[in-house]
Amino acid sequence: MPVAQNLPTGPPTRTAATDTGDFDHPPTAAGSGPRASVGLPPAPALHRAGRWRLAAAAVWLALMAWLGFAGYIALPSGQLGSDAMLGFAVFGTGAAVLLAAAVAAHERAQARLAAEVEHAWVQTRHQLQALFTSQTEQLEALRRDAHVDALTGLATRRHFLTQLDRVLASGLPRLGLVILRVCDVQGMNRRIGREAADHVLQTLAQTMMQYPHRHDGCLAGRLNGTDFALVLPVPGVARETAHALVSAMRVPMVSVDGAAGVCGGVVELAAPVAVAMALSLADEALARAEAAGAFRVVQADHAPPDPPLGEATWQQHLADALQQARTSLGAYPVCAADGRVLYLDCPLRIQLGASQDRRVAAHWLPMAARARLCAQVDAHVLGLALQAIAADGRGRCINFAAQSLGFSSFVAHATQMIELAQPHAGRLWIDLPESLALERPELVRDVALRWGAAGVQVGLEHVGEALARVPGLPDMGLKVVRVDSCFIDGAAVPGAADLRRHLRALVQVAHGLGMSITAEGVRDAADLQQVWSLGFDAATGPAVQPMSPQYSG
């Protein structure tokens, strides 16, 4: 199988020519396929032997039938005696027995061949699965090296700030930022020892990680040796969360070091705001908390956001916008390395209430999910995309929320829309969240195979965090993986060799499974050149310059 040629057999190795790293690829030799590896007899020999036996038996039977017929005609005239007829009967019986034996031998040979081929196929599948498991384990190790703090398991500073920048630029109207600082880490190292102090830091990290594990959109990272950060996508809970974390750490810290402490700085952010401003506000609050003493929390002020809307109001605004068609699709080019526009990314924009602006998904999607309107929104998006493809023939990519696919009625309705839209569905790309493939792989496999049969290119978006842990990825029927921008930013920086090794491994896993790979949201021209050198098939983002006229959302 072609996949086997792209799977590694050993640990990742580095080449002398590049610092991006690579996987070893063993050379393949003729005759080393599954059949040779298990000692199967040549299939043509089995077929020839069976054919000769059947042919010989058929000729014998035909001869005996002719002789018997001749004897039947000659017997009334007295030209043949009873002994001759008995001989014909014996020979005819022998021919029938020979034919039956030949048929049985042929069937046994075919059954043996089928069993040996099945055995070889099972062995081959096991070998491929073992090789794929080995490669994904290496991919996961490279991801952790590039983006995870070795001591605490939190995101590194670079990776966390990249994620924070993306969230702040996404249009999310309000969010909370918490920075916790462990006081006097150097003094704690002297008082209780490095190992015990590291255990305190790990305990704090584990406590913080409960939030990203339980709530989508939360981010946690380690900024430096003493500072830890947490992003909360829900407004109004940052101060309460910081107090809960500080209180949870009081007993574990004081019990091992009476002089230890932790304090927190909190800021409720209103978009738009830059990363530097967000960190500055949180640092200001943190400095005031440190001055107040250990286990204190202080919140800094920021410009208030738009007046909050209640859940019922949000739900009514969304329903009205869909019913009145106050929606539109963006059009952002996804390009190959030579600048060809492969298709268009088409995020949904919605005009809510009396506002004349059409808001991006980060503004309304959390409330749509809370109101369980994602299926209705995604069905609307699918209809808009199919209409646009029918109008101009351009390929378009849309994305579906995980909540939508949880409704069997939505999957059935989307399938019907796709089947009725032929042949335009062959120009449609549908992205599903990487997290959905990790949590419900059988669901993703079902829709990928069902919609793929209609020509749709089904892929995973925001990939990079968990691809190596997706169960059954080789058989999922996916065509595309799109790597999250937070794994792309900074790829060209000289000191980012670990990041490049991770990206190279993602490319090799995707290509090894017959999937194309796209870089999302590339903002820097140097990063874009690095993306092409690593073997990506496509890219999108501000740095991408298509050959055809520009598109805008």
Number of helices: 17
Mean pLDDT over the residues: 81
Which radius of gyration do the C-alpha atoms yield?
34 Å
**Strand element count:** 16
Indicate the CATH architecture of the largest domain.
Answer: Alpha-Beta Barrel
Low-confidence segments, given as residue ranges, are: 1-46
CATH topology of the largest domain: TIM Barrel
Strand content: 5-15%
Task: Count structural domains.
Answer: 3
**Span of the ends, CA to CA:** 42 Å
Instruction: Name the CATH superfamily assignment of the largest domain.
Output: EAL domain
- Name the helicity range: 40-55%
Q: Give the neighbour order of strands across the main sheet.
A: 7-8-11-12-13-14-15-16
* CATH C-level of the largest domain: Alpha Beta
Q: Largest sheet, if any?
A: 8 strands, mixed
What structural category do the secondary elements indicate? alpha/beta
* Large-scale geometry: elongated
Question: What attributes does this structure have?
Answer:
TIM Barrel, 8-stranded mixed sheet, 3 domains, Alpha-Beta Plaits, alpha/beta, disordered N terminus, elongated, 17 helices, 5-stranded mixed sheet, 553 residues
Describe the structure concisely for a colleague.
With 553 residues, this protein is an alpha/beta fold.
